[in-house]
Design goal:
Length: about 400
C-alpha cells in the first residue's frame, strides 16, 4: 500500500509542509529584519544563525531521550507549542538582541522536535513504505523552501516582519493539531535508569555500527555548507549580486522548487535510491553546485547553480534518513536522530560562526569554494567506506541492513 493511502501519514505530510513554510517565512523575516532594520554586520548575521544551532549542539543526544522514554508525538506537541510562542515573541520585539533571545528559545524547541520527527515515521508506516514515505516527507519539507520565502516576502511587504512571525506561529499550531490524533505503533520503551545513561546508550548504539558512523562523518561536510550559507548567502546577494532581500527569497524559492520536484523523483525510485553510494553522490554533487553558485557575480548563473544544488540535495537527505532508521533499533531512534542533530548543529554553528570572517578575509569566491569543498570531501569519505565494505567478506554483521544497501 502506498503511504499516502494512510490517513495519518497524509496528515503528517501536510502538517510538515505547512509547518516548514512558516519556519522559512520567519527565517526570511529574521534575516531581512536584521539587515534592513538593524543594519546587521556580518558578525551579527552569524550570531543570529548560531541561535538556531547552538541549543542542539549543547543538548546533544540528551535531546532524543524524551522521544525514546515517552513517544515522539508528545515531544512534538510540546516542542512545537513552545516554538509557536517564540514566534509570537519575535513578532513583538523591537531590538536586534530581542531577535537573538527569541530565536535562541526557538532553536531550543527545535532541538527536541527534530529527533522526535525522525523517530515518528517508522511508527506511522511499515518498513517497506519507509523509502517512499521519507521522500514524500522530505518533499513536504522542501516545499517550505520553495514557498516559504515567497510567503515571507509577501508578508513583509503587506504587514512587515511582524506579519511573517505571526504566520510562523500559526503554522506551528497547525503542526500540533496534525500530530495530536496520530496513533503510533508500539515499541519497547527505554529501561535505562537515568536520562544520562539513556543518552550514553544512544551513543553506544551508533558506535556499534561502523557504517552509521561513516554516514555521520560524511554528513558533517553537508551540514557545514548549510551553516555557512546562513551567513554568506544574504551578504552575497546584498554585496555581490547587489539585489534586495526579495531576490534572496526568490533564489531560495528556486532551490526549494527543484528539491520538491526531484523529491518526487526520489519517491518514485523508492527502494532503489536507498543506497549508501547514492548518499555519497548527493553530497558530492551538492558541494559542486554550491561552489558554482557562491562563486559567480552573474544573477542568471546564480539562479541556475542554486537550482542544480536543489536537484542534488534530495539524493542525500532522503536515503540517509531511511538508512539511519533501518540500521538502528526503533527504541533508540530518538537518540540516534538527536546525535545526528548534534552533529548538524555543531557543524552549522562552527561554519556559521566562521563564515563571516572567511567572507571578509577571502572574498565571496574564496569563502564559497572553501565551504563547498566540505560536502565533496564528506561524500568521498562515505563512498570510500562503501567500497571497502564491498570488498569485505563477512557472513554476519550488525550492519546487514546497510550492507544490503551497498
Amino acid at each position: 500500500m502506498h503511504p499516502l493511502r494512510n490517513r495519518s501519514f497524509r496528515a503528517l505530510a501536510i502538517g510538515q509542509a505547512v509547518n516548514g513554510i512558516g519556519s522559512w517565512c520567519a527565517l526570511i523575516a529574521i534575516w531581512g529584519y536584521a539587515t534592513e532594520r538593524f543594519h546587521a554586520t556580518p558578525w551579527q548575521i552569524s550570531v543570529l544563525g548560531l541561535t538556531w544551532t547552538i541549543p542542539g549542539a549543547l543538548l546533544g543526544p540528551m535531546a532524543g531521550v524524551p522521544t525514546d522514554r515517552w513517544d515522539p508525538r508528545r515531544v512534538l506537541i510540546v516542542a512545537d507549542s513552545l516554538a509557536a510562542g517564540c514566534a509570537i515573541g519575535m513578532a513583538f520585539t523591537n531590538t536586534y538582541w530581542g531577535l537573538v533571545v527569541w530565536s535562541s528559545a526557538q532553536g531550543f524547541a527545535k532541538s527536541f522536535a527534530m529527533p522526535a520527527f525522525g523517530a515518528l515515521t517508522p511508527r506511522v508506516v511499515s518498513d517497506e513504505q519507509l523509502p517512499v514515505a521519507n521522500a514524500i516527507l522530505n518533499s513536504a519539507m522542501q516545499a517550505s523552501i520553495a514557498f516559504g520565502p515567497v510567503l515571507g516576502a509577501a508578508a513583509i511587504e503587506l504587514s512587515g516582519a511582524k506579519g511573517a512571525f505571526l504566520v510562523d506561529a500559526f503554522t506551528y499550531c497547525i503542526g500540533v493539531a496534525v500530530v495530536i490524533p496520530l496513533v503510533l505503533s508500539p515499541i519497547a520503551k527505554s529501561q535505562v535508569a537515568s536520562p544520562w545513561s539513556d543518552a550514553l546508550e544512544g551513543i553506544r548504539v551508533v558506535r556499534a555500527r561502523p557504517e552509521v558512523m561513516r554516514l555521520f562523518a560524511g554528513a558533517v561536510g553537508v551540514y557545514a555548507l548549510w551553516g555557512a550559507g546562513v551567513t554568506i548567502e544574504p551578504l552575497y546577494v546584498r554585496d555581490i549580486l547587489e539585489r534586495s532581500p526579495a531576490t534572496f527569497a526568490y533564489l531560495q524559492t528556486a532551490f526549494g522548487v527543484m528539491m520538491v520536484l526531484v523529491g518526487f523523483v526520489v519517491a518514485r525510485v523508492g527502494e532503489r535510491s536507498t543506497r549508501i553510494d547514492v548518499v555519497a553522490a548527493g553530497a558530492i554533487a551538492s558541494g559542486l553546485c554550491a561552489a558554482l553558485y557562491l562563486a559567480t557575480p552573474l544573477i542568471g548563473v546564480a539562479f541556475l547553480a542554486i537550482a542544480l544544488w536543489g536537484v542534488s540535495t534530495p539524493w542525500f537527505t532522503t536515503p540517509m534518513r531511511t538508512l539511519l532508521q533501518r540500521a538502528t533499533p526503533a527504541e533508540a531512534h530518538g537518540r540516534v536522530f538527536a546525535l545526528d542533530e548534534t552533529l548538524r548543529s555543531w557543524a552549522m554553528a562552527v561554519a556559521t560562526g566562521s563564515a563571516g570572517f572567511a567572507y571578509s578575509e577571502f572574498g565571496y569566491r574564496g569563502a564559497g569554494v572553501l565551504y563547498a569543498s566540505l560536502p565533496v570531501l564528506g561524500g568521498l569519505v562515505i563512498l570510500s567506506g562503501a567500497r571497502r565494505r564491498k570488498l569485505r567478506s563477512t557472513s554476519s554483521t550488525d550492519n546487514d541492513v546497510l550492507a544490503d544497501a551497498l
